[in-house]
Amino acid sequence: MVFIENIMSIFSEHGIAFLKASWMTISITAISLLFAMVIGLIFAGFKISSSKILNWIADIYIGIIRGTPLIVQIMFLYYGLANIVNLDSFTAGALALGVHTGAYIAEIFRGAVQSIDRGQMEAARSLGMPYSLAMRRIIFPQAFKRAIPSLANQFIIGLKDSSLVAYIAVTDLYNTALSVQGENYMPFETYFVVGVYYLIIVLIFTWVANRIEKKMDVSKPKEGVIA
Amino acid sequence: MIEISNLSKSFGKLEVLKDINLRVHEKEVVVLIGASGSGKSTLLRCLNFLEVAERGDIVIDSENIDLAKTNLNKVREKVGMVFQHFNLFPHKTVIENIIEAPIFVRKETKERASSKAMALLKKVGLEDKANYYPEQLSGGQKQRVAIARALAMEPKVMLFDEPTSALDPELVGEVLQVMKDLARDGMTMVIVTHEMGFAKEVADRVIMLADGNIIEEGHPNDIFANPIHERTKRFLNQIL
After folding, report:
1. How many CB pairs under 8 A join A and B?
2. How large is the ipTM?
């Protein structure tokens, strides 16, 4: 079995490099997603807002981001703006990924907030809660729960899209695969191995997301509190 | 307690309330009846400003409400509301539903809010359900929790918007019983309902609305036994 032998040799020769690259992929993804969540929240707020100007700003942002390829955004930020802001490749990559994913997350949050029954806001307001308090304590927690499956999906897309930062010289998983393959001329085995790395990361993430979703289940009584 | 004068409200071109005048006295129980689309729910919702009327004045607890100046959140603290579809917060347990506003709006301590909530739950017969989530309760239980939640803000008036319309028939009684107890304790109440038996028993005054007008009002015995207006007669015939 030449295939198995080749795989084993890739693991023994490049295992450490792939592990380091995994860490790079995970960290650039994590930072970009954190950033994307903040952007997503802000622009979801803009879209829900009654201010026409804020709606308009959000529409322009989301329109541009969704209307152009991620690779173009990454290249534009890293090479295109090099004369104005000189970002290192990691920062440029994380920023581009974050701004990109943020647009999609904004739409996910907006949809989730708008899907919450109008009666929830009315009940909160009827108890004397100001709009912002009602949003924070009543609407958003429910919307967030509802958004988890879509968010998890978007996070997985973000993780896989992070492979595009290889083109601005971030030594992530995909970039490592490119250089290993350039060395050993075994594209089949090399891309197979890197695929396995991505798959394992995605599976672990999916498991965590499912746990979080289960934890927010409200079909059983809450234990050990008051009374 | 409540004084409404010349209240008018439209949705687009549709005039839902036409120049309504109404007084509700302290400890009075007023039942609003009328066909669907008559404006009774809208009138109720105007009283805590979930709907904002275009014209007219509303005085609540001797305070003239001026939309530009009055803090509506403060007004709403005094006016409890119970909805047809309960609108409990599904992500919070029964007790968390009740203590939410007392803690975050009235700034009560968690201990005080919780002990008050337990007393209210006892009053509505649900003290054993404190740590359940709304999803685990029957409709009647949900509505009783919703009543307890509104009472936790110690309102001066309670508004009920068809509180039993979404319930299975066998669960209506338990909710009406809680409302009867409240009325007996002297709560000022404005109720939109189709439960005429309940209205007969509990209401001090019944008000009949049609097409956004109050067409008839009076003691339930008079209204139900000798309705004057043709539309009231027709409405009561259909419903009884």
Report:
1. 96
2. 0.92
pLDDT surpasses 50 at B4: yes
> Given a cut of 80, is residue A26 above it in pLDDT?
yes
Say whether A129 and B83 touch across the interface (CB within 8 A).
no
Q: Which two tokens stand for residue A99?
A: 């701004």
pLDDT digits (tens, 9 = 90+) for B54-65: 899 999 998 888
**Contact yes or no for B153 and A141 at CB 8 A:** no
Q: What is the pLDDT of residues B73-86, one digit of tens each?
A: 999 999 999 999 99
A206–chain B nearest CA distance, Å: 23
Q: Which of A170-174, B35-39, B114-118 has the lowest mean pLDDT?
A: B35-39
Asked if A126 and B48 count as a contact pair (C-beta separation under 8 A), the reply is yes
CB contact, 8 Å: A145 with chain B? Answer: yes
Mutating which of A126, A148, A219 best tests the B interface, going by the most B Cβ atoms within 10 A?
Answer: A126
- Tally the residues of chain B: 240
Q: Judge contact between A160 and B106, C-beta under 8 A.
A: no
Give the amino acid at A145. Answer: K
| Whether the Cβ atoms of residue B89 and residue A138 lie closer than 8 Å to each other | yes
DSSP A222: P
CA–CA distances in Å: residue B128 to residues B92, B95, B102, B120: 16, 10, 21, 12
Instruction: Name B20's Cβ contacts closer than 8 Å, sequence gap at least 6.
Output: B4, B6, B7, B8, B39, B43, B56, B212, B213, B214
Which chain A residues are within 8 Å of B153, Cβ to Cβ?
A: 127-128
CB of A179 less than 8 A from some CB of B? no
pLDDT at residue A218, as a whole number: 65
The pLDDT, as a whole number, for residue B70 is 87
A4 vs B: CB within 8 A:
no
Residue B114 at interface with chain A, using a CB cutoff of 8 Å: yes
Q: Which residues pair with B81 in a beta bridge?
A: B159
Rounded Cα distance, A65 and A69, in Å: 8
8 Å CB contact between B167 and B175: yes
Distance CA A16, CA A180 (A): 12
